[in-house]
């Protein structure tokens, strides 16, 4: 398998992530291992999301304590939701390590809209003082 070939067993989104990463960088050695883990994590998040969306599955429960006439209510969160949050954090950390957690800059040559407004304002002020 070459560094750009997707590892076996990836799901749809895992494969899409691998393809996107492979277009941007060499995925050999440690970078390939991290990329593979990121892809597996994306697929795992999809499975966890499916479990949370399953009809009839509640991801939390309110548990009233009968000993104090229902005055104390305990919120019980399903372990699937907790695991999904942990996997999201793991994915964030892996992507940051790979250097892809930062969104690309705006495609416009002048930067984002705030930069464009600031540049126009500066040009108007310069023209008014000239």
Overview of this protein structure:
By secondary structure, this protein is mainly alpha-helical. It has one domain. It has four helices and two strands. It has helices at residues 12-24, 29-53, 79-98, 113-129; strands at 60-64, 73-77. Strands 1-2 form a two-stranded antiparallel ribbon. Helix 1 packs antiparallel against helix 2 and helix 2 packs antiparallel against helix 3 (79-98). The longest helix has 25 residues, at 29-53. The protein is flat. 10% of the residues are buried. The model has no long low-confidence stretch (mean pLDDT 81).
Average pLDDT over all residues = 81
Give the distance, in angstroms, between the N- and C-terminal Cα atoms: 65 Å
Q: Describe the biggest sheet?
A: 2 strands, antiparallel
What Rg do the Cα atoms give? 24 Å
**Whole-number count of domains:** 1
What shape does the CA trace take?
flat
Instruction: Tell me the strand order in the biggest sheet.
Output: 1-2
User: What's the total count of β strands?
Assistant: 2
Relative strand content: 5-15%
* Helix and strand pattern: HHEEHH
Fraction of residues in helix: 55-70%
Low-confidence runs = none
Number of helices: 4
**What is the structural class?**
mainly alpha
List the helices and strands and how they pair.
Elements: H1 12-24, H2 29-53, E1 60-64, E2 73-77, H3 79-98, H4 113-129
Antiparallel strand pairs: 1-2
Helix pairs in contact: 1-2, 2-3
